[in-house]
């Protein structure tokens, strides 16, 4: 019974992981960068929002401003990528985002204070219904709906619109795309800004449930990457499923006395299992 | 926020620091008593209020003529919450000939430097000790109660005063502190003859807290102890509020007893209690008056941490004043070990360094309760635990 309650409670965490995982996948599918700094970028937007709310700004204005900050910060990362690393391989680009991540952590702790908690506004924190002894809030419902939306909209966009085709060309063959007249740098910057705003939105929604300091928020990158990996960095629906499963698993794990101490390492276990499974048909003993 | 210095500015500042260091050496010698301190001025765990208040105590003493005619030079080093830095700055302080440490507030100081202090034969009157090592060293005596004694005190308050029947514990165990936590819980059982209904020492610092609260709900806990960092306590209480746990007493430790938690957790409709390290800092009592005036002079925020800074510096000054003849590392050690216990109204038990392989002189706490966004004292007298 407790397992069932925990599983239901885990839906919210799962929705959060999925949201962040989908933001990462979106960046990867559109500009071909695995961005380790993405949760930190989102945290910048979310903390900007909470500071503005604390200053007395109406919530909707603060949210807009926070989305703007997320977009601007991610655009800055994008600018670095487009300017200096457009010709570099995926590995190098990823390494750059790791460096960006560590500097963002240091900067975020300095800017947003490390020691005192902020209370993230939860406008939809009223109970929606009670299921298996667990009170499920509207916030949880909205998180899940939004995660679903994040999974469906990009698929429709990429498959069925002209801009989707351009974006796919941009991600897969940037130089060819440029040669046939697609304004690659401008399009890429727009993608960076939009995915930055999406991450900020994801963190704003999920921040209230987790430890409310910048470092903890930025660390959401681990389960998010695990979720994206379940989707093999290709599939939006599978990333959604991966995030949800991970959240539920982590929540249920906290009720099993044998493994609850290891709840924190489950994303890594998930990453390991997915990697081994997805590479199972490869031959390891051949020279390259 | 600090504005980054331009290069010429940085050079000038470096030159100024170097000049001060040289001047310090010149004017040092027999006239100056050097006291060291390690605190977090940057990084994840910031304790500037501790050292600002301690510094003010020493400045006041200097202004009043110093200690037996000598001025105190208080040297504060920032360890940025980084263990490597903690080790490095301790060596820097000892190289600059400090005679003792006072007003330190670093989470890593005791674990990293405990052995070194022992080796170098230097004593530390710590402002805020948080790890078990701070209460197990022959060379360190904190002025605060510390998380472990506080855990016993808060549980005792719940079971004896609030009449909680089903007491539960959810604890984030930091590396190296599991034994101390178990001892604290065992001590409560010995004192009250009661057992915990749930004792979960596997709580993680990350993720959603709801599953733990669901367990507390299922086990019908009527008092729940949780020892989170300040950042985790608000999501914990918010989740409890969402799950409708309004008839449960939530017991917290001193790190949660802050103005920002009071503000962030107000209006959740929960019963929230916390243990204070000293005379509660939010109380406008006579006991706090001198400390409050000192903090105001230091232009530092009034916090429980700053009380630790004030008390450790004050006790150090009192002990230094008893030393006849030259003040050296050795004479300070002797004075601390042979000192008479000091009674202070901000503490429930007299503070003493004394002989012994370990020191936990402070065994008393008061309990505060969250009411209308403010912490109110609910125990007029200190809850003093009997010594082991």
From TrEMBL, chain A:
One of the record's GO molecular function terms: transmembrane transporter activity
Membrane-spanning ranges: 6-26, 33-53, 59-82, 94-115, 135-158, 187-208, 238-256, 262-278
Topology in the lipid bilayer: Multi-pass membrane protein
Taxonomy, superkingdom: Bacteria
Signal peptide: none
Keywords recorded for this protein, A-Z: Amino-acid transport, Cell membrane, Membrane, Transmembrane, Transmembrane helix, Transport
Gene Ontology annotations for the cellular component aspect, listed alphabetically: plasma membrane
Keyword tRNA processing: no
Any one Pfam family match given in the protein's UniProt record, by short name: BPD_transp_2
Any one GO BP annotation for this protein: amino acid transport
InterPro entries found in the cross-reference section: ABC_transp_permease (IPR001851), BCAA_transport_permease (IPR052157)
Subcellular location field: Cell membrane
Family to which the UniProt record says this protein belongs: Belongs to the binding-protein-dependent transport system permease family. LivHM subfamily.
Protein name per Swiss-Prot or TrEMBL: Amino acid/amide ABC transporter membrane protein 1 (HAAT family)
TrEMBL record, chain B:
Record's keyword terms, sorted: Signal
InterPro entries per the UniProt record, alphabetical: BCAA_transport (IPR051010), Leu-bd (IPR028081), Peripla_BP_I (IPR028082)
Signal peptide: 1-23
TM helices/strands, residue ranges: none
Pfam family, one: Peripla_BP_6
Annotated Leucine-binding protein domain residues: 32-373
Similarity field: Belongs to the leucine-binding protein family.
Protein name: Amino acid/amide ABC transporter substrate-binding protein (HAAT family)
Organism: Amycolatopsis cihanbeyliensis
């Amino acid at each position: 019974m407790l397992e069932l309650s925990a599983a239901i409670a885990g839906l919210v965490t799962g929705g959060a992981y999925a949201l962040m995982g989908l933001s990462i996948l979106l960046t990867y599918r559109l500009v071909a960068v695995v961005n380790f700094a993405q949760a930190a970028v989102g945290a910048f937007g979310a903390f900007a929002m909470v500071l503005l709310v604390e200053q007395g700004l109406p919530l909707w204005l603060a949210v807009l401003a926070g989305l703007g900050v997320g977009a601007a910060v991610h655009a800055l990362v994008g600018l670095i990528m487009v300017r200096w690393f457009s010709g570099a391989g995926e590995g190098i680009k990823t390494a750059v985002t790791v460096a960006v991540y560590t500097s963002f952590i240091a900067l975020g702790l300095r800017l947003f204070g490390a020691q005192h908690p902020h209370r993230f506004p939860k406008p939809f924190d009223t109970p929606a219904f009670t299921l298996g002894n667990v009170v499920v809030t509207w916030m949880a419902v909205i998180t899940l709906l939004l995660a679903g939306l994040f999974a469906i909209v990009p698929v429709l966009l990429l498959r069925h619109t002209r801009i989707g085709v351009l974006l796919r060309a941009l991600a897969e063959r940037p130089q060819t795309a440029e040669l046939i007249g697609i304004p690659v740098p401008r399009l890429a910057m727009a993608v960076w800004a939009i995915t930055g705003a999406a991450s900020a939105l994801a963190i704003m929604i999920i921040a209230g449930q987790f430890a409310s300091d910048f470092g903890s928020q930025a660390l959401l990158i681990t389960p998010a990457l695990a979720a994206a990996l379940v989707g093999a960095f290709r599939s939006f629906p599978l990333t959604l499923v991966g995030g949800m499963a991970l959240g539920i698993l982590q929540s249920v794990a906290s009720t099993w006395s044998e493994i609850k101490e290891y709840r924190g390492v489950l994303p890594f276990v998930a990453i390991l299992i997915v990697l081994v499974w997805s590479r199972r048909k490869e031959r390891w003993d051949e020279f390259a | 926020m600090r504005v980054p210095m331009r290069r010429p500015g940085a050079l000038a500042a470096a030159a100024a620091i170097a000049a001060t260091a040289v001047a310090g050496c010149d004017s040092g010698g027999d006239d100056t008593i050097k006291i060291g301190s390690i605190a977090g001025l940057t990084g994840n765990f910031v304790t500037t209020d501790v050292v600002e208040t301690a510094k003010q105590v020493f400045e006041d003493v200097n202004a009043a003529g110093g200690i037996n005619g000598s001025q105190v030079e208080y040297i504060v080093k920032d360890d940025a919450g980084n263990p490597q830095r903690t080790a490095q700055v301790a060596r820097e302080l000892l190289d600059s000939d400090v005679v003792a440490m006072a007003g330190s507030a670093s989470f890593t100081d005791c674990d990293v430097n405990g052995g070194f202090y022992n080796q170098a034969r230097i004593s530390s009157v710590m402002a805020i000790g948080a790890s078990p090592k701070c209460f197990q060293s022959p060379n360190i005596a904190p002025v605060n109660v510390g998380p472990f004694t506080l855990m016993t005190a808060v549980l005792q308050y719940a079971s004896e005063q609030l009449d909680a029947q089903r007491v539960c514990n959810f604890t984030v165990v930091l590396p190296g502190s599991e034994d101390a936590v178990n001892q604290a819980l065992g001590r409560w059982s010995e004192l009250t003859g009661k057992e915990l209904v749930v004792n979960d020492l596997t709580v993680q610092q990350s993720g959603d807290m709801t599953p733990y609260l669901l367990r507390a709900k299922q086990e019908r806990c009527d008092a729940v102890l949780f020892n989170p960092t300040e950042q985790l306590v608000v999501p914990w209480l918010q989740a409890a509020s969402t799950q409708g746990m309004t008839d449960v007493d939530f017991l917290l430790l001193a790190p949660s007893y802050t103005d920002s938690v009071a503000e962030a957790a107000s209006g959740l409709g929960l019963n929230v209690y916390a243990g204070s390290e000293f005379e509660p800092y939010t109380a406008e009592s006579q006991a706090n008056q001198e400390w409050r005036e000192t903090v105001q002079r230091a232009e530092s925020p009034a916090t429980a941490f700053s009380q630790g800074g004030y008390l450790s510096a004050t006790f150090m000054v009192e002990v230094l004043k008893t030393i006849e003849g030259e003040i050296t590392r050795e004479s300070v050690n002797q004075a601390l070990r042979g000192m008479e216990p000091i009674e202070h109204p901000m503490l429930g038990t007299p503070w003493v360094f004394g002989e012994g392989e370990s020191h936990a002189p402070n065994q008393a706490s008061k309990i505060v309760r969250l009411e209308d966004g403010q912490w109110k004292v609910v125990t007029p007298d200190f809850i003093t635990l009997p010594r082991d």
